[in-house]
Design a protein that fits this description.
The complex is a heterodimer of chains A (about 160) and B (about 425). Chain A is an alpha/beta fold and about 160 residues long. Chain A is built from eight helices and seven strands; from the N terminus they run E-H-H-H-E-H-E-H-E-H-E-E-E-H-H. Classes of the chains: A alpha/beta (about 160), B alpha/beta (about 425).
């Protein structure tokens, strides 16, 4: 599994309210539509310009705040390839995996990668490569979590494990 | 080596001895959902299981946007009522006078119990730790999967011990303490951890104050937050407990902690979290005089009887200078405040009351801000756009500080108003 795209870079403590504003939580219900509001209160350009495969690179504690899953769903709705951060808030981390959105912790990569760079993430080998030739290794994703990601999220994963496929 | 609260509760739930770092799978005692029970029910249908694993373990409480402010919200509530009927869910709090903010209802009706493992599809589910429960927030898909399978995995968390001693000075309350702690350790200071509150000052605190402390655990990144299940808890839950599976569990004296902090209440003063992050702490003295357009007293953080009483003490016989919205956290609180004359004091001071629920806390209705406006609020989050407009500003504070500020139309120190 590989992801390739442009980097959108953000700072520390980006919270779920700026990723997906609370006022939309009961009015925007279709996952396909959620992408339109992604990062609305942080970077209004993002939802208009992000391309499938693009990667968010951010500082510490990405996704802090609410348990709202739309903070992850609005990113998968735009086919964001992954979020690389120095650290993640725990509920966002679980929500992302459950939505099939890869989340990678790599402080070194975050310090070095700039906005607008093209990067490739190689999940099999646990490597992030930039178009400048820089490489950053990250700890392999735990097996159980990888299983959920490979199935495309928790719903499909459970369906499989319950023999409903 | 002794065990932490989290290790002991999760050990009991799995039937094995467990230690921090281990992955465990448990069957939760209660699963709470609010208005998001509707989208969760859709995901549950997508999984393809016909019936939830145990309908008696699900609790639904409508609170986020009640009564429905738009047709979309009304449709959302309708989906929930149909699902409740279809699945035979008995613990359902519709828009009726036994309801209120979900976390308040969970505690006052006896769902939050010592030693239980509880999950909720809301980040402030950590509030139930005030009653000695291990409780944590999860997302929609994870809740749907838990309904389907009756199981959820956790990493047994590392723990942080926060010891609190001393007594509050005049005009200072639990909110001031937790705002200060959040400022000190920052919004990721307890990431993934179980936060245990210890010490004489916690024992002296009311259950309402403990709820305020545990409620804000998530704002430090914690998985859960918890206070000792002492006699105050046991007396409260007597005749109320909605499960007989509870058991008083607390950390061993020699448990191992990742971090330990100590606070003396003598050093805590009225404080605020400035826009736009919860850890942007400042003593009130440093922001005094900041002009405000709205004051808000309510929410799962500070909408309890003691909070309304604190505000009433400040407002009694006076008149607010800006619009002041008061929302009791439940109808039970509303009734008690009425019979004690607290509601009259608030109305006489010019406050407006709204029906119990989340109100404007996350920007749904009943007090959205205009661009450029500033609100001082007893809620839990001041993120950009949180109250419905990204060009507005939110200060978080205690009920006494919010009330004092409402009187002056600018951020004010409650110690200067209280006599």
């Amino acid at each position: 599994m590989k992801v390739k795209g442009k980097v959108w870079k953000y700072g520390d403590d980006v919270n779920t309210d700026v990723i997906f504003p609370g006022k939309y939580t009961y009015t925007v219900l279709d996952p396909a539509e959620m992408g339109k509001y992604a990062l609305e209160d942080l970077d209004p350009e993002f939802a208009r310009k992000a391309q499938p495969g693009d990667v968010i690179v951010a500082g510490k504690n990405w996704g802090c705040g609410s348990s709202r899953e739309q903070a992850a769903t609005c990113l998968t709705s735009l086919k964001v390839g992954a979020v690389v951060a120095k650290s993640f808030a725990r509920i966002f981390y679980r929500n992302a995996i459950n939505q099939g959105l890869p989340v990678i912790q790599s402080p070194a990569a975050v310090d070095s990668i700039e906005a607008g760079e093209q990067i490739e993430i190689d999940f099999e080998n646990g490597l992030i490569r930039t178009d400048q030739g820089k490489e950053f290794a990250f700890a392999p994703i735990p097996e159980y979590v990888r299983g959920i990601l490979q199935d495309g999220g928790l719903v499909e994963h459970i369906r499989k494990s319950l023999g409903l496929e | 080596m002794g065990k932490t609260f989290a290790e002991k509760v999760l050990g009991k739930a799995t039937g094995n001895e467990v230690s921090a770092g281990q992955i465990v799978t448990v069957e939760p005692h209660f699963c709470m959902s609010h208005d998001n029970a509707a989208p969760i029910s859709k995901i549950f249908r997508d999984i393809g299981v016909n019936k939830v694993w145990d309908s008696s373990k699900l609790v639904f409480i409508l609170d986020h946007a009640i009564p429905a402010p738009t047709d979309k919200h009304a449709q959302n509530h309708k989906v929930i009522r149909e699902f409740v009927k279809d699945q035979g869910i008995e613990h359902f709090y519709d828009i009726m006078s036994n309801g209120g903010v979900c976390h308040q209802v969970m505690c006052e009706k006896g769902y939050a119990l010592p030693g239980l493992v509880m999950v909720g599809s809301d980040s402030h589910t950590c509030t139930y730790g005030a009653f000695g429960a291990f409780s944590t927030g999860i997302g929609r898909t994870e809740m749907a999967a838990t309904w389907a399978t009756g199981k959820i995995w956790f990493k047994v968390p590392d723990s942080m011990k926060i010891s609190v001693n001393g007594t509050f000075s005049r005009g200072v309350s639990a909110k001031d303490l937790i705002l200060r702690i959040m400022g000190d350790i920052q919004s990721d200071g307890a990431d993934y951890m179980s936060v245990e509150f210890h010490g004489k000052a916690i024992a002296d605190m009311s259950l309402g104050s403990r709820m305020t402390l545990c409620n804000l655990g998530i704002e430090m990144g914690a998985k859960n937050a918890v206070c000792p299940p002492d006699d105050k808890v046991l007396n409260f839950i007597k005749d109320k407990a909605k499960s007989d599976k509870w058991e008083s569990i607390w950390a061993d004296e020699d448990a191992c902690y990742e971090k330990a902090l100590e606070y003396d209440l003598a050093n805590i003063e009225p404080g605020v979290a400035k826009p736009h992050t919860v850890d942007n702490y400042s003593p009130v003295t440093e922001v005094k005089g900041t002009s405000i357009d709205q004051a808000f007293i309510g929410t799962c953080t500070n909408g309890r009887l003691q909070d309304l009483e604190e505000a009433a003490k400040v407002l009694s016989g006076k008149r607010v200078a800006v619009r002041t919205i008061v929302i009791p956290a439940s109808w039970e609180i509303y009734r008690k405040a009425m019979s004690k004359g607290v509601i009259d004091i608030l109305l006489d001071a010019g406050c407006v009351l709204a029906n119990p629920g989340c109100g404007p806390c996350m920007g749904n209705h009943e007090g959205i801000l205009a661009p450029g406006e500033t609100c001082i609020s007893t809620a839990n989050r001041n993120f950009k756009g949180r109250m419905g407009n990204k060009e507005s500003f939110i200060y978080l504070a205690s009920p006494a500080t919010v009330a004092a500020s409402a009187l002056k139309g600018e951020i004010a120190d409650p110690r200067e108003v209280l006599v």
